[in-house]
Write a structure and sequence with these properties.
Elements: H1 9-39, H2 53-77, H3 80-106, H4 108-114, E1 126-127, E2 153-154, H5 155-163
Antiparallel strand pairs: 1-2
């Protein structure tokens, strides 16, 4: 039986390991985001920092990095201040996720109309390869030297060409 004021070792190290994993993921996100920021000097299509995916990745990675640091150190050292800060931030995140889900459910018609022009669900049905794009014309996986037909091609025609 656990003594009063002591935390079980399993719970302590489970929280530590998961937060250490999230801390590493946050660090990787920061690194990838910073790499993307430095590599996109030629592409200035995103002039606003709030819509720049690389800047958003750095910001989210930094947030995850800091919050998981509170959880990691708080669990390892049994620091009540860090654990309470971690708990409060996690509760706020869960509440915001629930609110976002409820808003998405409440405003679903507006959201579905907004994404209707993208044909999100129809990607596999209609495939239009770009002529002379970054990868050039698409080629068959089975026969790498054989080019697939260009234009709007259904998935059935592509799979028939690949399987033959």
């Amino acid at each position: 039986m656990a003594q009063e004021g002591k935390v079980s070792r399993f719970l302590k190290y489970t929280l530590f390991v998961f937060n250490l994993l999230y801390w590493c993921i946050g660090g990787v996100m920061i690194g990838v985001g910073l790499w993307a920021v430095t590599q996109k000097s030629d592409y200035n299509t995103f002039s606003s920092i709030s819509t720049d995916p690389a800047a958003v990745m750095v910001a989210v990675g930094g947030f995850i990095f800091i919050i998981s640091f509170f959880g990691t150190v708080g669990a390892l050292r049994e620091n009540i201040c860090f654990l309470k800060t971690y708990m409060i931030v996690m509760i706020i995140i869960v509440i915001l996720e629930v609110i976002a889900g409820l808003l998405a459910f409440a405003f679903w018609p507006e959201i579905s109309v907004g994404t209707g022009a993208l044909n999100v669900g129809r990607g596999p049905e209609h495939f239009r390869p770009r002529q002379g794009g970054i990868l050039g014309n698409p080629v068959s996986w089975k026969h790498p030297c054989k080019q697939l037909p260009t234009g709007i091609v259904t998935l059935n025609k592509i799979s028939a060409k690949i399987l033959t």
